[in-house]
């Protein structure tokens, strides 16, 4: 075990603007981003609720419910929400939030990840996770970065594993969500793992890892496995 006698509380996520090759990550502001974010996630209650069906909050009746939900979570101090904009166009394409922020122990969660159709299965989806993790580990010096999801959400579980999070188990009967039981799958990455994970992200995002049609040459998991040998 490392000597942590000199460990000091970490700062909360800061209001930084992170500019990547494919996407920009910036602090959420309702007046600036709210309507565009609602549209990016589907634009109608039916579409947004379908996209966020594994989120634990009740379904939204319309955009005002959505705005109030995000505002309440951020005003409480529980969340620090980031919005994603496509590089070049500035088009809002999705969001995620830092949550369960434990400054004293250097632990933080990335959650409420919502990628609109425009960013799904694109380099933007990977780059935002790299940028948000880099802020946590490199800028703020956190020790632990968590990812949690409904255990039935197979896409989220696969994404966590692909991004380099380690599966830690399932919290059974964790919560009641939308009138149903939710078991929650827990994943994490820690500071000692981050340099290798960061290198894999950067190798995957490198221009030479994409062919003339924009298809990846090597997958992120493949790169990470190779770097571990």
List keywords for this structure.
globular; 229 residues; eight-stranded mixed sheet; 34% helix; alpha+beta
Short overview:
The model has no long low-confidence stretch (mean pLDDT 95). It is built from 7 helices and 8 strands; from the N terminus they run ββαααβββαβαββαα.
Overall spatial form: globular
Please report the distance between the alpha carbons of the first and last residues: 24 Å
| Contiguous runs where pLDDT drops below 50 for at least 5 residues | none
For the biggest β-sheet, the strand order reads 1-2-3-4-5-6-8-7
> Which range best describes the helical content: under 10%, 10-25%, 25-40%, 40-55%, 55-70% or over 70%?
25-40%
User: How confident is the prediction overall: mean pLDDT?
Assistant: 95
- Tally of helical runs: 7
Strand content: 25-35%
Structure characterization notes:
The protein is of the alpha+beta class. The protein has an 8-stranded mixed beta sheet with strand order 1-2-3-4-5-6-8-7, with helices on both faces. The mean pLDDT is 95.
Task: Provide the fold topology.
Elements lengths: L17 E2 L3 E5 L2 H11 L4 H7 L11 H13 L3 E8 L5 E11 L4 E9 L7 H17 L4 E7 L3 H10 L2 E12 L2 E11 L3 H12 L14 H9 L1
């Amino acid at each position: 075990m490392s000597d942590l006698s000199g460990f000091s509380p970490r700062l909360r996520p800061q209001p930084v603007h992170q500019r990547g090759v494919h996407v920009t990550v910036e602090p959420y502001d309702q007046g600036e981003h709210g309507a565009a974010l609602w549209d990016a996630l589907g634009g109608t209650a039916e579409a947004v609720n379908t996209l966020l069906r594994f989120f634990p909050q009740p379904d939204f009746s319309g955009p005002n419910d959505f705005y109030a939900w995000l505002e309440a979570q951020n005003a409480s101090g529980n969340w620090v929400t980031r919005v994603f904009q496509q590089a070049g166009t500035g088009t809002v394409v999705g969001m995620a939030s830092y949550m369960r922020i434990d400054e004293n122990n250097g632990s933080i969660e990335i959650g409420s990840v919502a990628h609109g159709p425009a960013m799904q299965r694109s380099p933007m989806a990977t780059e935002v996770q790299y940028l948000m993790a880099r802020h946590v580990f490199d800028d703020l010096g956190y020790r632990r970065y968590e990812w949690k999801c409904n255990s039935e959400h197979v896409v989220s579980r696969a994404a966590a594993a692909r991004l380099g999070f380690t599966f830690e188990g399932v919290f059974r009967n964790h919560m009641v969500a939308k009138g149903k039981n939710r078991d929650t799958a827990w994943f994490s990455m820690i500071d000692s793992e981050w340099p290798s994970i960061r290198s894999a992200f950067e190798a995957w995002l490198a221009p030479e890892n994409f062919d003339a049609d924009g298809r990846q040459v090597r997958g992120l998991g493949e790169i990470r496995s190779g770097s571990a040998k």
